[in-house]
Every structure is written in C-alpha cells, then in structure tokens.
Amino acid sequence: MMKKVLIVEDDRVMQKIVEKILMHHFPEFELLGAVSLVSEAVEVIHKKAPDLLIMDIALPDGTAFDLLQKVEFYNFKVVFMSGHEDYREEAIQFSAMGFVKKPFDVSDLVLAVDKACEAIDEVDYHYKLEVLLTNANLPAASQMVVFPTDGGLKAVSLSSILFGEAVAGGCFMHLEDSKSLFVSRPLRYYEQLFSNFGFLRCHPLYVVNLRRIESLDEKNTLIWLDNGMEIPMEARKYEAVKKRYYDIIP
Questions:
Q1: Domain boundaries, given as residue ranges, for the chain
Q2: How far from 1 is each of 27, 112, 229, CA to CA, in Å?
Q3: Considering the entire predicted model, what is its pTM?
Q4: What is the architecture of the domain spanning 140-248?
C-alpha cells in the first residue's frame, strides 16, 4: 500500500530537493506535493490524511509545533528539518523524533524517513508526540527525554538525571529517585545530546549532570552528588569539570 507524503517547507529549492530524494529512494510513496504554511498543511492533513510529514520547524505563519497543536488526531509520522540553530531542535531530539539538519546529505534524509516509516506501536508514537508538545513549552533543563527501554518508551525530566554510565550494549541513566534505566543506545549519543545542558564526560564510563554535583574531590578524583552518591572522575578531567561546574553554578 502506497504511503502518502506531504512536504511542509517554505523554501522552494528545498521543496524540490526533498521531492527528488523521495521519488528516487521511495517509489512506493505517493507525493501529495509541498506547502509553505502551517494553515495550508492543516488543510491538506484534514482532506488527504497523509501517512508522513516532512516539515521544517520554522514556517512563515508559525512552527511545526503550532501545526501539531492544530491537528486533533496524529494519524501520521513526522520527520523534522531545520536550517539554522534553533533551541527547539533539542525538544525534538529529546522526544526521540526524526530530525535532519539542513543542509543534509541524501543519506541523512533517507535514514530519517526509513526510521519514521518503521512499524512501531502507535501508542508509543503518539506518546512521543505528546512529549514533544510538552517540551515545546518548557525551559530546556526541565524538558522530558524519551528513552527506549526494555519495557517500552520512558520519559524522564532532564533535570532528574544524575549521571549516565556506559555498559556493554548501551548505558544506564541513574535518576534522582534512586532508580536506573537501561537504555540500548551508547552513552556517547547522550553525551552529545545533553552537552549544551550542563552534562559533561568526567570519566570514560561516566557523564555527569553538573547541576547535581555537591562537591569535587581533587585528591581522590571523586565527584559527590547532591543525593549522597559518588562517581569516579579522571584526574585529568578535574580542571574541565570544575570550570564547567562554576560556569553553570557560580
């Protein structure tokens, strides 16, 4: 069965680029064309019920978040695009949604579309969209992060994460309620994702939330957290951790 795809992008050149990539790599798609405005996209969604939206975050009459808030039922999947630095990018990535940064390689878009079209539990997908819309209205440090776990998707507040620990096959996220989540993604993925929000690699196996540090011990190369736990710190990382810590918490 052919999937119906709508492109929501106000740059005419980018519209054509995306169309050509889809036509070449996804012959099973039915292209519904491209629109430039949130209002136009909402009208097409209601009339033609696309299966997939590929849309820019910022549009002339609003944002991708505005569009999602105007649609009552999410009977489609989404790949987001962004052409410039935008704080809303993290909201999308924290929610585990498909995202590509413009200008992108063809393979970047193809991979994002493939992932969006994978057969996934609809409840889980709706859950990610709801987390995304919640994140759009929260300051970055309070946003929710969606983690894939053995028991399904789990959303936790970024501020509740004490530290991440690398283990075989993924990592553990240690939380303030003394619980831990095993996540099947490597710690380096979250190190990059959280790097602008006060998280830092303090040891080959640990990434710490600097806002949850109680004190640093230079001699014994330990970090004490505000819940009483301690984690190791490489001696050579001491100065970098201390500097970032005091930059965030004067």
A1: 3-135, 140-248
A2: 12, 20, 53
A3: 0.81
A4: Beta Barrel (2.40)
Residue 50's identity, in one-letter code, is P
Query: Residue 51 and residue 49: Cα distance in Å, rounded?
Result: 7
Q: Which class is 3-135 in CATH?
A: alpha beta
Query: In a 3-state reduction of DSSP, which class is residue 59?
Result: strand
Q: For residues 178 and 161, what is the distance between their CA atoms, to the nearest angstrom?
A: 10
Place of tokens 């501020």: 159
Contact 90, 65 (CB under 8 A): no
Asked whether this chain's domains 3-135 and 140-248 adopt the same fold, the reply is no
Amino acid at 87: Y
Instruction: Give residue-wise pLDDT tens across range 183-225.
Output: 999 999 999 999 888 999 999 999 999 999 999 987 778 999 9
Residue-wise pLDDT for 6-50, tens only, equals: 999 999 999 999 999 999 999 999 999 999 999 999 999 999 999
Q: How many CA atoms lie within 13 A of 137 on its CB side?
A: 6
At 26, is the secondary structure helix, strand, or coil? coil
| Sequence-distant (≥ 6) Cβ neighbours of residue 241 within 8 angstroms | 200, 202, 208, 210, 216, 223, 233
Q: How far is CA 53 from its chain centroid?
A: 17
